[in-house]
Amino acid sequence: MLEAAPSAFRTARRLEQLDLTHATLHAPPGGDSAIVLADPDGDHHLVADAIDPAQPLAVLLPLDDSFHIRAEAALRFQRRLFGRAAGPLPRALALTPRHRQRLVRMVRALDGRSAGATYREIAGVLFDTPWHSATEWKTSSIRAQTIRLVRDAGTMVRGGYLRLLAGR
Known about the structure:
Layout: E1 2-4, E2 23-26, E3 33-37, E4 44-48, E5 57-59, H1 67-81, H2 97-114, H3 119-127, H4 134-138, H5 141-165
Antiparallel strand pairs: 1-5, 2-3, 3-4
Helix pairs in contact: 2-3, 2-5, 3-5
């Protein structure tokens, strides 16, 4: 969150001094304005109340369990605004290719299950593996993995995605 800086922070940068060339402003009626600053390594999303462009700025970080991630994100934002490369996303927010693939499979598995597909049908699509017998399917590790994907996707839908957003 961008806020007006307390008067003690006289040297803080002002909105008019920042490089907002690649920024997009979203101002919903009656809500807080959001600034999205495009960055090749991961966009910066900021919430800002009405700020006078000549007012010194501060970043508000709550003292919560995600403080360390927010502080890293604030440093990326500061580097980007001062004309330097922001650098990679905080490690807690960066998805590995394997984790990204699992999340995609979870969404696809949940979509299939919601459409009435059996676990065996879902596995056939996700893993492109034909099953010859019911016995082979029942003892397959792919079956167990498919069931976990559907279960874990359901957990994400019921609020588990918040852990992902918090870097856990």
